[in-house]
Amino acid sequence: EQALISGVAVDGDEAKITLVGVPDRPGVAAALFRAIADEGVNVDMIVQNVSHEGRTDISFTAPKADVPLLRTILDRVAAATGAATHQVDDGIAKISLVGAGMKTNPGVAAEMFEALAEQRVNIEMISTSTIRISCVVRAADADRAVRAVHAKFELGQEPAAAPRA
Amino acid sequence: EQALISGVAVDGDEAKITLVGVPDRPGVAAALFRAIADEGVNVDMIVQNVSHEGRTDISFTAPKADVPLLRTILDRVAAATGAATHQVDDGIAKISLVGAGMKTNPGVAAEMFEALAEQRVNIEMISTSTIRISCVVRAADADRAVRAVHAKFELGQEPAAAPRA
Ligand SMILES: C[C@@H](O)[C@H](N)C(=O)O
Ligand SMILES: C[C@@H](O)[C@H](N)C(=O)O
């Protein structure tokens, strides 16, 4: 099955926020995102990977303008949940390959990551769906990253299909 | 802006695979997913969170039937990339809230996580897009999780809009 790649999106207006070392037990994710929702802050990407020794991190991206408010929310939630700490990183860019049918084409993710690797762009976070593969990179690498992915998928012409891996 | 929630999906046919303690440097994600793509294995959810002390984990879900082949691939990639180890977990289910416009409604993620927390279902991995919020849980918790999320978003009637948080 062939994936259809429609373009590359870049978002330079978000910060990466991480609640570090949260206890991996029911209710923690709910507490964090309830606190954020109650303050009316929009959240984009949410990422949580597996835990080790009963602890994991929960990260998300949000508008840079909301960082001051998020810091106070995270202070409160970190204390309430017993998290180790929280971190804010406002020097990121989110690079997304946008398309369809990407779940069943393993080569698409490989090609995107190879495009970034060839430019020595480090991938700091990854989150995927059938229509989008999103990577967080340093903001300073964004332009190079976008050009590399655009070239890899030959997105000069529209619409483009993913190259068969 | 109101999110539109169209349903809850559950996938019980996938395993969770994690490459643990990979060096956080360009080329690692590319090496992993190129090796997987070259063997023709389909990958669904890919999740990578922030690194600590230069190391992070890369997890993904894939069909359980591909686990034996993936184990051999991961052996090779773990050695090649200097990862600490790899883990396979075939006792998971993936619960997804499916809809649209979910990026700008922070209450939707909070409500989904609260539905799971109320049932004491632990969330093991999270990955989101504007059209899908996916949580990995224990397979034994899948039925309870689906019913809880279904009830939270009042998905008995179709179509349903997300409740205003
Ligand atoms: C870490 C966090 O996701 C926790 N496992 C929860 O269920 O809320
Ligand atoms: C960990 C992995 O994503 C690495 N940072 C890379 O760019 O490939």
Query: Proportion of β residues of chain A?
Result: 35-45%
Task: Tell me which ligands are bound.
Answer: threonine
Strand elements of chain A, count? 9
Largest interface chains and counts: A-B, 60 and 60 residues
If you had to describe this structure to a student in words, what would you say it looks like?
The structure is a homodimer of 165-residue chains. The termini of chain A are close together. Chain A has helices at residues 28-38, 67-81, 106-118, 142-152; strands at 4-11, 14-23, 46-48, 55-63, 85-89, 92-100, 125-129, 132-138, 160-161. In chain A, a hairpin with a 2-residue loop joins β7 (125-129) and β8. Chain A has 165 residues and is α+β, with helices and mostly antiparallel strands. Helices cover 30% and strands 35% of the residues of chain A. Chain A has four helices and nine strands. The radius of gyration of chain A is 17 Å and the shape is elongated. In chain A, α3 crosses α4. In chain A, the strands form two sheets. A five-stranded antiparallel sheet of chain A has the order 7-8-6-1-9, covered by helices on one side. In chain A, strands 3-4-2-5 form a four-stranded antiparallel sheet, with helices on one face. β3 (46-48) of chain A pairs antiparallel with β7 (125-129) of chain B. Residues 22, 24-30, 48, 56, 58 of chain A line the site of one threonine.
List the SSEs and their pairings.
Two copies of one chain form a homodimer.
Chain A: E1 4-11, E2 14-23, H1 28-38, E3 46-48, E4 55-63, H2 67-81, E5 85-89, E6 92-100, H3 106-118, E7 125-129, E8 132-138, H4 142-152, E9 160-161
Antiparallel strand pairs in A: 1-6, 1-9, 2-4, 2-5, 3-4, 6-8, 7-8
Helix pairs in contact in A: 1-2, 3-4
Bound molecules: threonine (2 copies).
